Amino acid sequence: MKASKIKLMEVCGTHTMAIARAGLKDVLPKSVELISGPGCPVCVTSQSDIDRALEIAGEKDVIMTTFGDMMRVPGTKTSFEGIRREGADVRVVYSSLEALNIARNNPSKRTVFMGIGFETTSPAIAETILEARRQKIKNFFVLSCFKLIFPALSSLARSKKIKIDGFICPGHVSVITGSRPYEKIARDFKTPCVITGFDEIDIIQGIRRLIKQIRENRYEAEIAYKRAVSPQGNKKARKILTLVFEVCDARWRGLGLLKGSGLKLRPKFEEFCAQREFKVKLPKPVKVKGCLCGEVLQGIKTPRDCKLFKNKCTPQNPIGPCMVSSEGTCAAYYKYRNRG
């Protein structure tokens, strides 16, 4: 066994909310500590990517489309909610296909979809781009801010700021990726990985398996969610994804620039690339004084360590994205652990 204190990190915002809702941190033995990581796609979106989206949204004859959680995330100067009040056409959509329909119905305007998310959502956006080409829609663009989970896991596993003994791995991402990519993380960093579902029994089962591996000095990737996840994952989804996108470096809030952790459109699909279509000047990013969102995403701080939490920073007046997103760690702590 590595140490008396076992530190396990969940890297999925849905897990973060489920753990908080069930109060699992309060009922586990004191020898087991659950740490929230960078599992919220809204939260890890870099300030520069948000600022780029805001600048594009402010361009003439542009319709910016995005998921609802992004509306209140603060950029350097404002937010989508703020710029919409100033007259920008910013619309909440539930899928990239909805954004494509908006482009089709507004041929005189350029419609941009801000694409965020991990391997779970990016294949669907890739298919939307293929559909845009089939329909010969020329006024649809994707601002690619997608992230890949495995470079982030590697970064966290090698971090000197925090020692992680095991990863509670995301079930929905793993439906696409399968379990095999986790094997390299477990082997190279001697950090076991267990893929779990999202109800309390799933998560407890995942924690149990991780503790068992740690006590037995094993470093393996296990599936505790076999009703949805297979070792090979969804090959068709990955094929569509690699047809449209290629791997690139990407900047994460909290983790910084991670090599090979993002996706960009391949050259043969660049006609849909918002970064190429819009040449905007970005403001100099300004870190909000006192906000610990970056440290929370690394697992080195908790929301309770932040002086803004529950005081100046609330769901009604969010200072950082970890409080804005429905999957953010600060939002989870506020909703389920820090009322009143």
Kindly describe this structure:
The chain has 340 residues and is α/β, with parallel strands linked by helices. It has one domain: 3-Layer(aba) Sandwich (Rossmann fold), CATH 3.40.50.11740. Helix content is 39%, strand content 17%. The protein has 16 helices and eleven strands. Strands 2-1-7-8-9 form a five-stranded parallel sheet. Strands 4-3-5-6 form a four-stranded parallel sheet, sandwiched between helices. Strands 10-11 form a two-stranded antiparallel ribbon. The chain is globular, with a radius of gyration of 20 Å.
Short description:
With 340 residues, the protein is an alpha/beta fold. It has 16 helices and 11 strands.
What is the topology?
Elements: E1 6-10, H1 13-22, H2 24-27, E2 32-36, H3 41-44, H4 47-57, E3 62-66, H5 80-85, E4 89-92, H6 96-105, E5 110-115, H7 122-134, E6 140-144, H8 149-158, E7 166-169, H9 171-177, H10 180-189, E8 193-195, H11 200-215, E9 221-223, H12 235-244, E10 245-252, E11 256-265, H13 274-277, H14 293-298, H15 321-324, H16 329-336
Parallel strand pairs: 1-2, 1-7, 3-4, 3-5, 5-6, 7-8, 8-9
Antiparallel strand pairs: 10-11
Number of helices: 16
Order of helices and strands: EHHEHHEHEHEHEHEHHEHEHEEHHHH
Largest sheet: 5 strands, parallel
Question: β content, as a range?
Answer: 15-25%
Second-tier CATH architecture: 3-Layer(aba) Sandwich
- Globally, the shape reads globular
